[in-house]
Amino acid sequence: MNDPKILRSDPARARKGAVDRGRRSLPALESALALGDRHRVLLQEVETLRSKRNEASKAIGAAKAAKDEAKAQALMDEVAQVKAAMPEKEAELAALDKELSDLLLGIPHFPHESVPVGRSEADNRLVRSDPEPTPPPFPLKDHAALGEALGLMDFGAGAKLGGSRFSVLKGDLARLHRALAQFMLDTHTGQNGYTEAWVPYLVRSEVLQGTGQLPKFEEDLYKTATGPAGTEAALPLYLIPTSEVPLTNLVRETILEEAALPMKLTALTPCFRQEAGSYGKDVKGLIRQHQFDKVELVWITKPEDSLSALEQLTEHAAGILRELHLPYRMLELCTADLGFASCKTYDLEVWFPAERRWRETSSCSNCGDFQARRMNARFRRGPKAAPELVHTLNGSGLAVGRVFAAILENFQRADGSVEVPSRLRKYVGKDVIGPAKTKANEGY
What we know:
By secondary structure, this protein is an alpha+beta fold. The protein has 13 helices and 18 strands. The longest helix is centred in the N-terminal third of the chain and has 40 residues, at 26-65.
């Protein structure tokens, strides 16, 4: 969450952050500002009552020691009055604490001052771009039509198993998909200095709250049923929407040593999203599936290093696209298009020639101390130094399904086959993927 000190000391800055993001969070912010004022007044009243109680209690002992029973009795009467008033005040304070916390959890991260101010994605800033490739001299198929024509991509089987927005890959396309993920992991761990992690795909609600998916985006999450009452399984668990969630939460409730920073983590996991707010969008193909694989990149840094870390993380993701010879462009998102937990984001988009459009394959974000405050993730600069909040960053390195789809479209050939990018050939074991040789497996 945002630093509550900003709301107290610089409400104008907080309001500007909410306005620059599109004003949607402004009512919640105004409520939080007003509630914060009430909270401070009530807290002072409760602390005054506690102080009176403690001082009177000490004085009772002194009066009794001096055998001044009258004074001791008067002090005991005073303590009784204070104790009688405290429960109501403390209950009111606890309710205000909860209400204020809920409001703060729902307010998005204020943008970094370097982020361009804008009203929609149309105001995102183009940082760099490859030129749009010249179309080949044959009719192009989109990745879904191409995969189905090869007999190696089956949306009907996916729908039979899981419903809409699921798919099945077969044979060489399944191998290409796996090869792509392996290539990404090998590059990030072997060249870019990331430590690979294998993490749970089911997590607790407080873990999702730590990275900002809860409470705001619960409708997009898959939630398990509860288990037997009285057991740990009775707590509902959530399928992860991205491995950013478990990777970042590895440092929750932790005080790291300065020497441990930066931490650079990566993981390949399936990701599960209901896409509740995207009904009717990209229903064809692999672009917006309920289940997809992604290689995630996460950094944990010192505050002064997070802006430069974002540049490095984004470059690591972009490097994969260059290695695969995929045309791409880089955008800096404007204030209105930032993700909930991000204060600064770059998007990487790849050219899809059959659609003649750029599509996002990675979003690389600096979350500052927004997630760290929710997770209580800190570091210490020295043995006697006070703990400070870390900064967290994350980005797709990359979304496997979308890059896979881009490869099919950009490397298709006139005869309907697909050339395997040179960097993937040792993983796939061939240079070209052609139609399935048998249809014996059709129908599953």
